[in-house]
Amino acid sequence: MKNIILGAEGIVIHGNKIVLGMQKQKRWYFLENGEKAAIIKTLGGAVEKVDENNTRYASENGILYTKDDKTLIMCYLKEKDINIQEGILTLNAYCFKQAENAENIILPESLQTISSSALRENNKFNKILIGKNVSSISPMFKLINYAGTVEISEGNPYYIIENNILYSKDKKTLICALYQITGSFTVPGTVENIGNLAFDAQSMQEVILESGVKKIDESAFSQCSNLKKITIPNTVTNMGEYLFERCNNLESIVIDNKEGSISGAPWGAPKGMRAITWEK
The whole model's pTM is what? Predict the structure, then answer.
């Protein structure tokens, strides 16, 4: 137990890792290898104190940071409008889980990286503003959280949002959908690459890829439990592993190409090869 520090309202800090769990501890914490690591006292679920001699973490105004103030670990603020301070480079996973009243979040211009599930847990979001220097956004940064809108600075050279879909700036890579898709969805032929986990856990029943799409990355349609049919044009030459993993209702994968022309079939489809139709 000496290497485990039990954190505020469900945070478990183990070594350099911070994992969210169901624990709700309210106590002073264990020392880690004789070092004062993340000695935090909680008060109503908020960080009250991080020991000034702590070499890893610091807290200020209801927010837990890494000591260098470059990574936002957890925001405990209860306000509706939250403006994150300049200097932050990275949003940690689940970092707004405890900001349960947050509706509008303004992220700093210094921000560069938004981690997986960083904005997943809060369903009261109205608007999230992402600045011009963000160069890395996980496709799962807002997984299964379709509340509100996400806006990106026009000056951002890496990303663009159009019709609530996040793309690379040149719109050749579709990164993820920011709304819950139902019914049929068409990927335009101007998109060349569908990114890893782009449609993970979405709700559409049919997907049509227009001619022009060339590559579908690993797990792009994983966990789409409502998906029944997908149509793939002959311009697609590469399909990643686990592409249709847990798509339990997927009955028809129609490929406009010769049998075996794309390797890796059935790409994780639960119904296997019997779901695939080659049309040339």
Answer: 0.83
Backbone angles phi, psi at 273, to 5 degrees: -65, -25
What is the tens place of the pLDDT at every residue in 96-126?
888 889 999 999 999 999 999 999 877 888 9
Which among 10, 8, 90 is positioned nearest to 49, based on CA atoms? 8
- Asked if residues 131 and 158 have their Cβ atoms less than 8 Å apart, the reply is no
Q: Is the peptide bond before 266 cis (omega within 30 degrees of 0)?
A: yes
d(CA 99, CA 121): 9
In this model, does residue 20 exceed pLDDT 70?
no
Q: So what's the pLDDT on residue 15?
A: 47
Long-range contacts of 234-237 (CB under 8 A, 24+ apart): 234/280, 235/189, 235/211, 236/209, 236/262, 237/262
Given a cut of 90, whether residue 274 has pLDDT beyond it is yes
Long-range contact set of residues 206-210: C-beta below 8 Å, sequence gap at least 24: 206/230, 206/231, 207/231, 208/184, 209/233, 209/236, 210/186
